[in-house]
Structure formats: C-alpha cells, structure tokens
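Q: My labmate handed me this sequence with no annotations at all. I'd like to see what the chain might look like in three dimensions before we decide whether it's worth expressing. Could you predict it?
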Amino acid sequence: MRTYTLAFADVLYACLPDGADIDRVIEEEACVGCAEIDPGEVRVVRGLTLTAFPAAADEVVWCAGPDGDLTDEHGRCFPYAVRRWVDR
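A: Here is what I predict for the chain of 88 residues:
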C-alpha cells in the first residue's frame, strides 16, 4: 500500500507519494499563488493513507473540504488522509 505526504496550513499545499520532493512543491505553490508561505506554519506529515472510509482506529489528519478531494498518483480522489495504525 502506497503512503503519502501532505503539506498544509489553513489550506492544503501538496499531496504527494512519500519520497517525493515536498519542499520543491511548496516553493512552487508559493510562486504560482504569489503568496508568501511561512515555512514555520506549514505542517508536513508523512506516511498517510488516502481513503474514502476511515477505520475506527485511524487518526484523521486531513479531511477534504468544499474545494475538493485529495488525489493520488493515478488521479483517484479520496476525502481523507489518515494515519493508519497497523498491528504488527
């Protein structure tokens, strides 16, 4: 199962597969939007699972709002990014 990295503050800046260059994407978003992004305010969370149906044990880290869902590398949309705890 592929996991994802999210970068967000009040808005979602990026949702990328783990291992992608999240810092570059945050910089590009700042340039495109002509907005100043304070790196200290951006929260980067790795190892998240995208899902339409969070399990009871999942920690919901991001829930999509009216602006749209999270999109995986195949273009599929999901409303939630969760930290999924797996028993080992």
